[in-house]
Write a structure and sequence with these properties.
Rieske Iron-sulfur Protein; four-stranded mixed sheet
C-alpha cells in the first residue's frame, strides 16, 4: 500500500492547493506519499474516503504514513468488541504510535499528541477558459507538440486550510 515518494504539482492558480495525482492512480486501499509545499504528506484512500496527514511522527520523526492502516476497535468489556468502520488509524512503523487518519489525533493522548491533517478531495481537472480537451493555449514560441490526454478527476490536497 506504500508508493514511491514524489512531488505534487501546484494548481494553476498559484494557490495552496496541490494536484497529487489522477484519482484513478489512488484506488481504494492505497496511499501515496508526496512532497508538496516542502512537506512530506501521505494521502490515503481508505474505506471510500480520502485522508491526508503530515508524514512525520511527533515521537521521533518517523515516516508515519508508511505504517499500517487499520479500522478503529472499541470494547466496553472483556470479550466484547466492535469495529467502527468510519474511523481509521495509522501506526508509525518505528515505535507503533497510532494516529486517527481524519483528525491526526493520537490514540494514546489525543489532547497533546497529534499530527497535522490536511483537507483532500477529488475535483475536476481545470482547463483555461475557452479551451477544449487536449487543446493548448497558444504562446509566443512554437515547439514540436505531441497529443496529451488529461484525466478529468484529480486528487487535490489543500495546504492552506
Amino acid at each position: 500500500m506504500t508508493g514511491p515518494e514524489q512531488s505534487g504539482s501546484t494548481d494553476t492558480r498559484g494557490s495552496s492547493r496541490y494536484n497529487v495525482c489522477p484519482a484513478a492512480e489512488l484506488p481504494e486501499g492505497e496511499r501515496r506519499v508526496v512532497v508538496i509545499g516542502g512537506r512530506s504528506i501521505g494521502v490515503f484512500n481508505v474505506g471510500g474516503r480520502l485522508f491526508a496527514l503530515r508524514n512525520r511522527c511527533p515521537h521521533q520523526g518517523g515516516p508515519l504514513c508508511d505504517g499500517r492502516v487499520f479500522v478503529w476497535l472499541e470494547s466496553e468489556r472483556p470479550g466484547h468488541y466492535r469495529y467502527d468502520d468510519d474511523r481509521y488509524l495509522v501506526e508509525c512503523p518505528w515505535h507503533g504510535w497510532e494516529f486517527d487518519l481524519a483528525t491526526g489525533q493520537s490514540w494514546f493522548d489525543p489532547a497533546r499528541a497529534r499530527v497535522r491533517p490536511y483537507p483532500v478531495a477529488i475535483e475536476r481537472a481545470r482547463r483555461p477558459a475557452g479551451s477544449a480537451p487536449g487543446q493548448v493555449e497558444p504562446g509566443p514560441y512554437t515547439a514540436e507538440a505531441f497529443p496529451v490526454t488529461i484525466d478529468e478527476d484529480c486528487v487535490i490536497v489543500d495546504l492552506g486550510a
